[in-house]
Amino acid sequence: MPEFTLNAEIGRTTGSAESRRLRTAGQIPGVLYGHGIAPIAIAVEGKALRSALTTEAGLNQLLELKAGNQTYLAMARELQRHPVRNTVTHVDFQIVQRDELMTADVALTIVGDAVDVRHAGGSVDQQLFTLHVSAKPSDIPTSWEVDITALQPGGAIRVADLKLPAGVAATTDGDVVIVAGHAGRAGADAPAEA
User: Fold this and answer.
1) What CA–CA distance (Å, rounded) separates 193 from 152?
2) CB 144 within 8 A of CB 109
3) Closest by Cα among 142, 151, 22 to 88
4) Can you tell me the distance from the alpha carbon of 110 to that of 128, in angstroms, rounded to the nearest whole number?
5) pLDDT of the chain along its 194 residues, tens only?
């Protein structure tokens, strides 16, 4: 996935009052850390951050963060949000390297039609919505589709059943159920014949 470039101001004053002033000016306070550097207090433009993180990759988007005279490859690892407005109030950026393994959450999307479950009067229950994976930053999938076409009543699709791309490994236990096909109650509810 291509990097998204963000400009970061370094040397901001920390504290609640300064953070409020930054947010009023359209800036989001944050911190940049990782790979042996001391944490650096930064601020990024709110609109640019929103544009970067509303791509298909979401929080797994690789960012080229220009801070002062340095450029870092980073990912947004944690967002703090306002409890009512849900706007971003603080962001943590982690410095990454292209060849290192890191963990990330990948959204799971259900595709297909579980015809056998539907014909049996049953239902499909998605139980896992994100998959925790380990991969190099550029190999992290933006999302993963789970095909339920072959799902049977009483059956399940588990993490171990997924065919992930090369270089991507699930760190979630393989026995965890992603989708379950529940059998219908049509037989139990049918009136008895005389």
Assistant:
1) 28
2) yes
3) 22
4) 10
5) 557 888 888 877 777 888 888 888 888 899 999 988 888 889 999 898 888 888 877 778 889 989 888 899 999 888 888 888 888 888 999 999 989 999 999 999 999 999 999 899 999 999 999 999 999 988 998 889 999 999 999 999 999 999 999 999 999 999 999 999 998 775 444 444 44
What does the alpha-carbon distance between residue 61 and residue 172 come to, in Å, rounded to a whole number? 21
**CA atoms of 166 and 139, how far apart (whole Å):** 9
Distance CA 163, CA 173 (A): 15
Which residues does 124 contact at the CB level (< 8 Å), separation at least 6?
110, 114, 117, 148, 151, 179, 180, 181, 182
Distance of CA 36 to the CA centre of its chain: 25
The alpha carbon of 150 is separated from its chain's Cα centroid by a whole number of angstroms, namely 27
Q: Which residues of 120-150 are buried (b: 16+ CB within 10 A; e: fewer)?
A: bebebeeebeebebebebebbbeebebebee
| Domains in the chain with CATH codes | 4-95 (2.40.240.10), 102-189 (2.170.120.20)
Nearest to 88 by CA among 46, 129, 38, 125: 46
> What's the predicted TM-score (pTM) here?
0.73
Q: Residue 6: CA atoms inside 13 Å, Cβ hemisphere, count?
A: 32
